[in-house]
Amino acid sequence: MTTAQLDKMRLELRRGVLVLAVLAALRERHYGYSLRRHLQESGIDIDEGTLYPLVRRLAEQGLLDSEWQQGEGRERRYYQISELGAELLTQLTGEWTTLNNALGPLLQPQKPASAKQTEEQG
Amino acid sequence: MELVKRYIAAVQRELPEQKRQEIGRELQANVMDQLDALADQQGAALSEQQVADVLKNMGPPQQVARQFCPVQPLIPAHLMPLYKYTMYMVLGVLFLLQVVFMTSHWLTGSDFGPISFVLGIVSGFIEDAIFGFTAITLGFALMPANTRSGQCQSADQWQPADLPPVGAAWQHISLSDVFTDLATYIFLLLIIWFPLGQQWFAGGEPVSSVFTLKSLQLLMWFSPFILLGVLSSLWQLQRRLWSRPMLSLNLIVNLAFVIILVLLATMGPVLQLDTANWSGYFSPEAVQEAIKRGLLITSLIPGYEIVRDILRLRKLNK
């Protein structure tokens, strides 16, 4: 598999998950850069070209509340999950947990057939 | 921070007017936060080069603007199959109309030869096709964004049981084949009947036909088979999948074409030609001989289709 193919598949895999991560992270109030740092510290590296448009899109869909505030000598737009967003997050979390539980066993490395037989006989 | 201002302004120029202010304001706040964090990390103010590196890392202004406001395709992806189908049908009909128009123009006595006739069809079709293409594309582009594909074909009402049976690849009938056949049939009907129709409506004035009297009479008797060909094409257009009855009908039409072409080739002069202009180059006999051979060669096309359809019928009967 080429690097380009791998990158494309990684992008597809991450696309839906990032929405979940952003909604979950915004249970606390964040502005753009602080949200990015928070996600990075949680192990989710997301570039600004993806994160900032995504946050705006979620806000336009009514899933996030936002307000401009002065902070540390500069105005910033703060985001937090809305009531609608919280409802959606609950549903998506349930979906994610179900998927993750189902995927876990599937993603386990396959045991060789001989090892399976030994286990069954034992 | 002049560089940051220039960068934000460049991004804003690529954005729709109603979003420029808001996105520019937010982007600037985010960039400044990032620069401040970097400055805190190194414990000193950033150099111009470092600011440039951060901005370069964010990507070209056009790309950043597209990430905030992705370009919408003129035709939404879910409407593309319907768009292509509509385009094909409309272009096919425009081609037919152009054939009708040019043939009637030619038969009313306009002074142009076969090459001008073909060029007239091609240029007229291109002109109509450009108009049709523009109209359809604009129509689809202006269609409300929430229109679902297939609504016109009552997409929710389909039943799996109504689907045609699994067929071989050859069973699929291409639209271009159907429209080519239709254009041929309509052209033939026009050149046979147009002069007579004109004579009828013009009040008994004899109008010259391109055919000799004998061949014209033969072609008039043959016209029902041409009409059968038109019906066969319309049926193909509706079903788009070869079935036994359709193949049988096509076989009859092609058989009639072979017979008429061979009869025309053997019965003598087919066309009334003004050979006086060509006498220096060809003798009238040579021209009629060339027409005769041309007709025999042309009969090989429906002949081939007869053999093809018999083989296909056998495959379907298995």
From TrEMBL, chain A:
Any matching Pfam family: PadR
Boundaries of every Transcription regulator PadR N-terminal domain copy: 22-90
Protein name: PadR family transcriptional regulator
Biological source species: Arsukibacterium indicum
UniProtKB/TrEMBL annotation, chain B:
Keywords: Membrane, Transmembrane, Transmembrane helix
Domain of life: Bacteria
Keyword Transmembrane helix carried by entry: yes
Transmembrane intervals: 85-103, 115-142, 178-196, 216-235, 247-270
Protein's UniProt keywords contain Transmembrane: yes
A Pfam family per the record: HAAS
Name of the featured protein: Uncharacterized protein
